[in-house]
Write a structure and sequence with these properties.
This protein is about 40% helix and about 25% strand. It has a 9-stranded mixed beta sheet, with helices on both faces. A 5-stranded parallel beta sheet has the order 16-15-14-17-18, sandwiched between helices. The protein has a 4-stranded mixed beta sheet with strand order 3-2-6-7. About 45% of the residues are buried. By secondary structure, the protein is an alpha/beta fold. The model has no long low-confidence stretch (mean pLDDT about 90). The chain is built from 18 helices and 18 strands. α13 links the parallel β14 and β15.
Length: about 475
């Protein structure tokens, strides 16, 4: 996306009201380490280390709307159980989300519990009832839609097929959309798109489109054929199909299919990515964006969220950062500010990755540096390099140094495969940068004693490790400069 257009759109989205209706879930993730197999059965033993819980499905749509700066009104059905209380607590904790949860005592609150280790899901346990809501609860949902849709810029219907999205609920959403001049956008897992009648946009993924049309949906040509068939059997204005690494494809009635692409992201977890796309699409349309622009935003948002662990949300700052990185060369994208470093490390930590940190002037990169950085990376999953600014180098090394500017030194470091991020610091030592990064591993090259390494005591206070990497003899910046001066 154009950066100026993106900034204007994100600004316009601030405060826009969106209603999220449909199947509500509570998603729980239990993370731990697997190091042995049970003696009782051939199954792995997960030693629990942490747990996270968040709203899922329609709830995740609402929290993504709020994270992007909008105001979300959430409507769904819960049971009379502890999970329902948890859902209410989670709604209350989300700034920008208000909720009306209809209680059906004989129906459990839909929950999904996932067990994960080393970035991989081991098991998912669902607790749910897939059945239509009772007539009284159905009418209560419809009444809430009519009431809460006043002033809304878009209505988002999240149909996971659990029974909440009935014919009367769809009719109420259509009526509320018409009354408020708001588009109705449906995220559907249904086989028959015709049930959504004259909805503005239906947003299946490629597998769901294939299920609804009985056609393959791998290539662009197959997608176009499936979209043409889908439009023939439903009355909606447009269908947007999400295609993972292949981007998104939009079919507007009476127009050619358009394919939207982005460089494939580093996918870590696709859970909830469709909810994020729906939220971004709906909020953009609610703020007056054209459909093409809204699709571009939805693609950008979903490409950011799949790099996170669990059912996650994205912020405007993350979208701007991701779009800025997309306009830069891969090497340049590794050079980040302090805030960018903190966000990247937070994402890595969510994945359970080990973060290493080292620092130096790296004025003239030589084989000793390469070996030391390579060794440091072999001890961790991601390596951050703190780089002295020009003024910091000058104070440490004297006049005439650095030979190369901060920009040049950063670019050379970032071009190395073993370096994942480069962040500059202007202080005499990287102590403040280390405190912000909170690395799992601190590495220094040379003949230091661990007690003499800046930040070693700090890293050890949070259980981190400090290691010394060996330098290659005969290589140093000082020696290189002295040799050059003699020539």
């Amino acid at each position: 996306m154009d950066m100026i257009a993106l900034q204007k759109l994100l600004s316009a989205m601030s405060g826009a009201k969106v209603v999220a209706v449909g199947d509500l879930m509570v998603d729980r993730f239990i993370y731990g380490e697997v190091s042995r197999i049970s003696a009782e059965a051939p199954v792995p033993i997960l030693v629990r280390s942490r747990e996270s819980v968040m709203l899922g499905a329609a709830g995740n749509v609402a929290r993504n709307v709020a994270a992007l700066g909008g105001a979300a009104a959430l409507i769904g059905i819960v049971g009379e159980d502890l999970a329902a209380e948890e859902a209410r607590f989670l709604i209350g904790a989300e700034a920008g989300v208000t909720g009306e949860l209809i209680v059906e005592p004989d129906r459990p609150t839909t929950t999904k519990m996932r067990f994960a280790s080393a970035g991989q899901q081991l098991l998912r346990v669902d607790h749910e009832a897939v059945a239509p809501a009772s007539e009284g609860r159905d009418q209560a949902v419809c009444a809430a839609i009519t009431r809460m849709a006043k002033g809304a810029g878009a209505i988002l219907l999240s149909d996971y097929g659990k029974g909440v999205v009935s014919e009367t609920v769809i009719a109420s959403c259509l009526a509320a959309a018409k009354a408020n001049g708001a588009p109705l956008i449906v995220d559907s897992k249904a086989r028959a798109f015709r049930r959504y009648r004259a909805a503005d946009v239906i947003k299946p993924n490629a597998a769901e489109l294939a299920f609804a049309t009985d056609l393959p949906t791998t290539t662009d040509g197959e997608i176009e054929a499936a979209l043409a068939k889908a439009l023939k059997v439903c009355r909606c204005r447009a269908i947007l199909v999400t295609r993972a690494a292949r981007g998104m494809s939009l079919a507007v009635r009476g127009e050619p299919v358009r394919h939207f692409r982005r460089p494939p992201p580093e996918v870590f977890d696709t859970a909830g990515a469709g909810d994020t796309a729906l939220a971004a699409l709906g909020l953009a349309l609610a703020s007056g964006a054209a459909l093409d622009e809204a699709v571009e935003l939805a693609l950008l948002a979903s490409s950011v969220v799949v790099e996170k662990a669990g059912v996650a949300v994205v912020s405007p700052d993350e979208l701007l950062e991701a779009e800025l990185a997309a306009h830069r060369a891969p090497t340049e994208a590794k050079i980040v500010t302090l805030e960018g470093m903190e966000r990247a490390i937070a994402r890595w930590r969510e994945r359970g990755l080990k973060v290493g940190f080292t620092n130096g002037c790296f004025d003239i990169l030589h084989p000793g540096h390469i070996a030391y950085l390579g060794q440091a990376k072999s001890w961790c999953d991601r390596l951050v390099v703190g780089l002295n600014s020009d003024a910091s180098v000058r104070r440490a090394k004297g006049e005439g140094r650095p030979v190369n500017s901060l920009e040049a030194r950063a670019l050379v470091l970032a071009s190395l495969a073993c370096v994942d991020l480069v962040t500059a610091f202007d202080e005499d030592t990287p102590a403040e940068l280390i405190a912000a990064a909170r690395p799992d591993l601190l590495v220094k090259g040379g003949d230091y004693a661990i007690g003499d390494i800046v930040g070693a005591d700090l890293v050890q206070t949070w259980g981190g490790e400090v290691r010394i990497a060996a330098f290659v003899d005969g290589h140093s910046t000082t020696a290189t400069l002295a040799k050059a001066a003699r020539r």
